[in-house]
Amino acid sequence: MNKKLIYSLVAIAFVFFITSLIIFLKSRSSVEPKVENPSKSVIQTEVDPPQLLKVKIFYFTNKSRYMKPMNYELENSPIKIELYKRFIDLIIQEKEDFITPLPQGLRLRTLYYIGSKKLLVLDFNENLVTRFPAGSSSELEFIYFIVDNICFNFEEVKMVKFLISGNEYNTISGHIDIENPFYPDYRYLRIN
Amino acid sequence: MKNIKLLLFGLLLISWQLFPLSIQIRSFDHDGFTRIVFEGDQSFQFKIRSSDSKFRLEIDKKVRVEKEFIQINNSDLLDKVVFLEEKRKSVFSVFGKGGFEIKRHFVLERPFRVVFDLVKSGPVPGDQKPLKISHAEKSVDRFEKNQESENEFKAGKQGQKKLIETICIDPGHGGSDFGALGKSNLKEKDITLKVGKKLKQIVESRLGIRVILTRKIDSEVSLNSRVSIANNQKADMFISIHVNSSFRKAARGPETFYVSLKATDQESFELARKENKSFDEIDQKAESDDLKMILWNMAQTEFIRESSKLADFIQSELNVLMNTINRGVKQAPFRVLMRAAMPAVLIEVAFISNAYEEKKLTNDSFLDRIGQSIYSGISKFIYYHNTMNR
Q1: Is residue B313 part of a domain?
Q2: Low-confidence ranges of chain B (pLDDT < 50)
Q3: Residues B348 and B239 both lie in one domain
Q4: A66 in contact with B at a CB cutoff of 8 Å?
Q5: Residue B206 in contact with partner chain A when CB distance is under 8 A
Q6: How would you write A11-25 as a 3-class SS string?
Q7: Residues of chain A contacting B277 with CB distance shorter than 8 Å
Q8: Could you give the CA distance from residue B60 to residue B12 in angstroms, rounded to a whole number?
């Protein structure tokens, strides 16, 4: 091998090493003076979102008119709207041994969060009205299954409003008014 | 010309003799007043003449009665009714045990009835004053009845509280809206219509109260139209009849609802406390501007307390009928109740989604008993309402 080439490579490697060393030392010296309060750095590490979020989902059973809780873990997201979507997708999945009071083919189209009103707007597909089995109790079971579960797990959501294919409807099947948003009604829930 | 007049007079005389009017009389004491009802098999014109301890109902038709003298034993106020035929006139004279006066009278149709509410004469407690019966002669038709209702309503607004005179019964669903379906293809809309008609018949015959149905046939009526009918007819009570359905097939029993937007009961509080959620927070939410706006828009707000009472009375009767103790009165934002400007409830008589109750709903005598139970609840509420508003 050409000696000149070897010297050149060694020189480049030396220059690269020195440059890296300088950058490293500079970056250390720029961080260290900012750590005035060691507890602050501890808080920063706690803020980091965990990979899984523990949630409690309440389900109806055939034996009881009240919903009972089950613990689940949900993949967390720093984007709240994404987290709500994951949560709703989780609760509208059919579960063995529990009653999910939902019409067949129900799908969440989109959702919005209006921070000033702490209102979550859920836009479901048309199956919510076209495939709904009717009956006051069915409507109440559906509404409070969704509203109670969301409000119970996400304190920043105080109200939930339903849209169907982007439109406001008077009722789902002729009973409960869904033009107005719903507050949770925890009378449907039982902890034990 | 003179001959034509004579001919017409002759025809009138013949028809007067050939097609007599049949009238049945019944009376009963309510709390604070006594009601006497003259029920005819056809409509008729009448005049009223009253004095301190009797009044006369004069009818310009020949009348057929079962008895010419009726002794009234079930009343503290009334003594007897005597029937007399005078010159081209049939007269019922109603005698009291003491002095009395006509508090009000009104006409109901199908069947045609003239209803009198009588009170003891003398000073009336409080500010309440009997309505003045000014017309000696009255042509009876729907228009005048409406005028009369309007006058009474105005009188009520001017200080005299209104007693219950009209009930609106709303058989749920109808037409292309079947409501809930049973496994045997039993339709909610058919059951609600049957129960509604039965209830109308019972209430009219026993209480002599005017009853309106929001639908009489299998037709589609929007939720807004249903409540508009009740509001426009100035109904004093709104009863919506439904059949329930649940995702839980085991769910059974009757339920009675009235409107509310606020969850404030003890269970909710306890749960909120257990879960470290502040109940104050829930309460504050109810006071938010949004909710105030909703409540402002809700005609039912003013009547929620009475609606709750009405629901209690009806549910108690249904619980006895169905032998249920667990299900009870509930609150929910029912669309059809929210704009009702009167005490209003929605009754879910049974679960069509439950096989046992679906079978019961096919039995006509079971539907009769449901009608009876709702009637009992209504009559208890009327007693309560009239006592409170006297």
Answers
A1: yes
A2: 123-160, 263-289, 292-293, 296
A3: yes
A4: no
A5: no
A6: HHHHHHHHHHHHHHH
A7: 155
A8: 11
The count of structural domains within chain A is: 2
Per-residue pLDDT of A81-115, as tens digits, reads 999 999 999 999 888 788 899 999 999 999 999 99
Chain B's closest residue to A116, CA to CA, is: B290
Residues of chain B contacting residue A177, judged by C-beta atoms under 8 Å apart: 333-335, 338
**Same domain as A41, residue A71:** no
pLDDT value, residue B109: 73
Domain that holds residue B205: 166-261+298-389
Phi-psi category of residue B236: left, alpha or beta, with phi > 0 → left and psi -120 to 50 → alpha:
alpha
Q: What is the DSSP letter of A188?
A: G
Residue B218: CATH number of its domain: 3.40.630.40
Substitution target from A59, A131, A136, A180 for chain B, most B beta carbons within 10 A: A136
- Asked whether residue B12 is domain-assigned, the answer is no
B188–A134 CB contact, under 8 Å: yes
Q: Are residues A123 and A63 in the same domain?
A: yes
Taking the Cβ of residue B240 and every Cβ of chain A, the question of whether any pair is shorter than 8 Å is answered with no
In tens, the pLDDT along A47-84 reads: 555 688 899 999 998 888 889 999 999 998 889 999 99
Distances B180 to B163, B185, B252, B356 between C-alpha atoms, Å: 36, 9, 14, 16
Write out the residue range of the structural domain in which residue A13 sits.
Answer: 3-47
Q: Does B289 touch chain A (CB under 8 A)?
A: no
Q: Which pLDDT tens digit goes with each residue over B117-141?
A: 888 876 433 333 333 333 333 333 3
Answer yes or no: do A42 and A121 share one domain.
no
